[in-house]
Amino acid sequence: MTLHTAVLHGPHGAAPSATAQGAYELAHSAAAQGTQGTQGVHRLVQNVDWAAIAPPAIVAVAALVVLVADLFLTERRKGLLGPLSAVALALATLSLLPLAGEDRHTFCLTAGPRACSYVADPFTLSLQLLVLGGAFVTALLSMTPVRQERLPAGEFWFLLLSSASGAALLPASRDLATLVVALEVASLPAFALVGLRRGQRLSSEAALKFFLSSVAATAVMLLGVSFVYAATGSMHLETVAEALPRVDSRLGTLAATGVALTLVGFAFKTAAAPFHFWVPDTYVGAPVPVAAYLSVVGKAAGFSGLILVAVRAFPSYADAWGPVLAVLAALTMSAGNLGALRQRSDRAHGAVRLLAWSSVGQAGYLLVPIAAAGVTGHDGRAVGATVAYALMYAVVNLGAFAVVAAHRPPGGDGRLDDYRGLARSHPWTAAALAFFLLCLAGLPPGIVGLFAKVTVFSTAVDAGLGWLAVVMAVNVVIALVYYLTWTALLFRPAVREPAGAGPTPVPVAIPLPLTVTVALTSVLALATSGAPQLLLRFADIALF
User: Fold this and answer.
1) What CA–CA distances, in Å, run from 293 to 54, 119, 134, 164, 329?
2) Helix/strand/coil for 189
3) Global pTM?
4) What are the sequence ranges of the domains in the chain?
5) Burial group, residue 56, by CB count within 10 angstroms (0-12, 13-18, 19+)
6) Exposed, middle or buried by CB within 10 Å (0-12, 13-18, 19+), for 35?
7) pLDDT for 22-62, tens place per residue?
8) Cα torsion at 387, 402, 160, 59 (round to 10°)?
9) Distance (Å, rounded) from C-alpha 192 to C-alpha 210?
10) Which residues cross the membrane (predicted)?
């Protein structure tokens, strides 16, 4: 006899009493509530797609391993942390292969409209390839400077991996809270990396300027995110996009202010004018590998966040942010190229400073397709053009920084004049640097740079932004001056020291890690110039 039968009929099948009837109803109600509670618990439980989150997770776990290993390794063995970090970044990059061609979602809401906090789609995978590949090249680039400049190895590799994990998480984030957390995980370790050369005034000043500027931008962005959440009641990008057009008229000003402040915060992370003044001093004060990392991986993180909030969360405000980004693109590329044009060949740290201003100019080109997406409302091809250009820029810019690191002795001031006669003393690295500079300029044989610029240019023309296309063409011509000036220096005779000034310096061999870095980036640049469709295909596919 079951429990409910015994309660209902009583012993020996007697008629139920009022008390028994009440007990049955109470038991039935409790059982129903228990069933609902059990179902509610099951609704809260979801499977985590570990394959989808593997790229940033591998890097994060590796950072913790490095942190713990640093406590037990002797100083002589801490050099092993560099290869360990490089292997972890390589594994994280390879973990992208099983995800190719798929759209995978995890950490999703279990009730209401489907909204997920982590999405592995073509946009995510292409940006994660850039971030993790760029971090891997940075790891190769860093092994020699970490040893030569006596940087604390444990701290350096832990901070680099921590920042890379945040940068890899950011393009997969699909809610504002995760976006902000990922951006700060990418940014906070970068502050420490910039100031890691203890006791050097330039390094401390660069870290402080970078920190104060970034914190101010983060505060503005957080205020904007809070306003957007207050107006829409949601953090997920897709839900925000649906709610913004239907916001109560009394909250319209709050929503518009939130959108503006959020975009301003992300514009800082991309080094867009007028939020670019921290770039030259920060790059000069940081170790060369950290400057290379910020110019590629840091910029990729900023642009992925800007694309997500502008295109995915705020499409209803595209008629406002589209023209504003077009103006910012024109200002950014003009400020960057004019700043690079002013660099003198005899100025201390001239090589890194020129690459810093160049990176500001390149940020202006990267903004053009995003502005075109806002003006036309067709974001697929425009966003793809930004990704294709960013991949090209990452390869050749990391290669240029690798050559700078290879030919900058510890304590050297890195003047452009130091590269005079490099074609005679180190012909292969001189040829590589010349090729990288021609790619950045968009001149043959740097075919990939030329085609990437044409792709970006065409998005502006197709969007009806003819004035922006003209500004871009003028800036490309301005950039030719300083890129070709540096290229010409490589083949000019070296400046001879006066008689009796001291022994003639003997060319030194380039350390193996730097040689591998230069060779790897050269091969990638040559391969993409021979087959530019490898990168330009991103401009022809729907990334979202």
Assistant:
1) 22, 25, 7, 9, 22
2) helix
3) 0.89
4) 314-494+510-544
5) buried
6) exposed
7) 443 434 444 444 434 434 444 556 678 899 999 999 999 99
8) 60
9) 10
10) 50-73, 80-100, 120-141, 153-170, 176-196, 208-231, 251-278, 290-314, 320-342, 354-375, 387-407, 428-452, 464-485, 506-527
